[in-house]
Design a protein that fits this description.
Blueprint lengths: L1 H59 L6 H24 L7 H28 L5 H36 L22 H9 L15 E8 L2 E2 L6 E3 L6 E8 L5 E10 L3 E10 L4 E7 L6 E9 L12 E8 L1
Parallel strand pairs: 3-9
Antiparallel strand pairs: 1-2, 1-4, 4-7, 5-6, 5-8, 8-9
Helix pairs in contact: 1-2, 2-3, 3-4, 4-5
Length: about 325
């Protein structure tokens, strides 16, 4: 009986040791998978940081890059972001990393999509026709880059580091990742326009000195419109908005774009070919299809390269068309 008891006890101890050994191996494997995940994320984040520095470095100081060279480099930056997004998507999320991985995928989708749209608009923004709208679209994509930074810093990074800490893994925390530098600077359309205007060969390049436009007059079928004062206009003829714009800068401005939207929807546009410094230019924009009844007209003059103050570039009017 004693021998049997000893044998049974020895067998039980052996079984416990085997279980502990298996558990230790599984724990080690799980820890290794978590550490590998964090290391892969860190590598992609570090490479993303280099792409961000390259892209915004060019915007801040394009040096002697021509339009073609600048566009090609932006396309390369976009391609790099698409590659990072693919690598993030292919990562397996070990243990409790599932939630963090899902949000990280969204972060890189936002970044890759934003950079793709920026690259797509860049040639137009550096050209003549439609450059103002293209620059505005580029500034709009900066919002998505900012959103990606907030998601990473507020959700992804704390979750990844929290899972690592709860599993007793030290020294593998993922780094910060801020793709959009300098706070909200690049959210400003005028800042983007000014930066693109400094690129050699850009037809939208700003000449030295002060640049600025002012919306100084709007009329509908000959009736002058005033902000805050509703007007009534006959609708017997096709409604036609005449917009007067003053060049309040020091240089001639070419290709000044003006838009009129009806009730925030149907947007129509026109172009003033050239306005000399201090002079006033005008453009007539027919409202087609012709609206009826009370409508809100929103008139906007697109910023020109180098323009810093745009508060006086737009106005809203309430009009009843009978």
């Amino acid at each position: 009986m004693l021998r049997r008891g000893l044998a049974l006890g020895g067998g039980l101890i052996l079984l416990i040791l085997i279980v502990l050994g298996v558990k230790g191996c599984l724990d080690a494997r799980a820890h290794r998978a978590l550490s590998d995940y964090a290391r892969n994320v860190t590598q992609i984040v570090d490479e993303t940081e280099q792409t961000s520095k390259a892209f915004f470095g060019k915007l801040n100081d394009p040096g002697n890059l021509s339009v073609t060279e600048f566009t090609n480099e932006v396309n390369a930056d976009s391609s790099a972001m698409n590659n990072y997004a693919s690598r993030i998507d292919s990562l397996s999320a070990p243990g409790d990393m599932g939630s963090a991985q899902s949000t990280l995928k969204l972060v890189y989708e936002l970044r890759a999509n934003a950079m793709a749209k920026i690259a797509d608009k860049m040639s137009t923004a550096l050209g003549d026709a439609g450059s103002a709208k293209a620059a505005a679209a580029i500034a709009g994509q900066m919002q998505d880059l900012l959103a990606s930074d907030v998601l990473y810093e507020q959700v992804v990074r704390p979750e990844v580091d929290g899972v690592l800490a709860s599993n007793g893994i030290e020294g593998s925390d993922v780094p910060k990742s801020t793709f959009l530098p300098e706070g909200t600077k690049w959210l400003d359309e005028a800042t983007v326009t000014s930066a693109l205007g400094s690129i050699s060969g850009s037809t939208g390049a700003a000449t030295p000195g002060v640049h600025g436009l002012g919306l100084i007059g709007v009329s509908l079928n000959g009736t002058e419109l005033v902000e805050g004062a509703p007007a009534t206009v006959s609708g017997e003829e096709t409604p036609e908005v005449e917009v007067q714009v003053q060049n309040q800068g020091e240089s001639t401005e070419n290709g000044v774009s003006v838009s009129v939207s009806v009730n925030g929807g149907n947007t129509l546009s026109g172009t003033i070919e050239s306005i000399a410094a201090g002079e006033i230019g005008s453009v007539s924009i027919p409202l087609t299809p012709a609206p009826t009844g009370q409508v809100t007209l929103e008139v906007k003059v697109e910023a020109v390269p180098g323009e810093q103050v745009t508060e006086n570039n737009e106005a809203s009017y309430t009009v009843t068309i009978e």
